[in-house]
Amino acid sequence: MKKLYSILVMIFFCLQFFALVSFGQSSPESLKIDDQKIKESFLKVINDELKALIEWAQSEKNDPKKNLRYSVAGKNWITFYDEYDSVYKYDIQKTNSIVSPYIGGVTFSGHTYMKQGVTEEECLKKEWELLNYKGRDVSSKHPKLIYSYQDGKWILKEKPSLYKKH
After folding, report:
1. With contact defined as beta carbons under 8 Å apart, do 46 and 68 qualify?
2. What CA–CA distance (Å, rounded) separates 19 from 21?
3. What are all long-range contacts of 69-77, with beta carbons under 8 Å and residues at least 24 apart?
4. Do residues 31 and 145 lie in contact, with contact meaning Cβ atoms separated by under 8 Å?
5. Is the pTM of this model over 0.85?
6. CB distance 102 to 161 below 8 Å
7. How far apart are CA 23 and CA 133, in angstroms?
8. What is the domain partition of the chain in residue ranges?
9. How far is the first Cα of the chain from the last one, in angstroms, to the nearest whole number?
10. Are the C-beta atoms of residues 99 and 112 closer than 8 Å to each other?
11. CA dist., res. 157 & res. 163, Å (int)
12. Which tens digit of pLDDT belongs to each residue from 152-163?
């Protein structure tokens, strides 16, 4: 009798486990829909971030004194600002984490412009020039922003120092 009871208990728990596993799994179709929603929500976050970056960069351009500094190495005054394109690269990856089932990264492209002069006044009066080194643009690559998807929203996890001002 004890053996029969043990077998029935095991069968009961096995059925519970299989029911939990089969009902807890998502079908491939629902995963695709969820993935599409995740992608759309990430693209909205990216576009909002890009809009904020463009506005911030425009304020830097309009007020060159914000970044005005003396360059000891160049023995001159410099100021600069970044101009962002509406072009960006992004990726979203599924993780094994229950807390953050997705991570996403985005890299914005743009260029850095600068002014330089022997005095502050001379520097501020000059026209903006594309920052380059030995004739090639060195400013078109910007660091990657890293987000994680938690509690139904994208949270910025890593923000390179370049972006910390805005």
Report:
1. no
2. 6
3. 71/116, 74/116, 76/116, 76/117, 76/118, 76/123, 77/116, 77/117, 77/118, 77/119, 77/120, 77/122, 77/123
4. no
5. no
6. no
7. 60
8. 47-163
9. 73
10. no
11. 13
12. 999 998 766 555
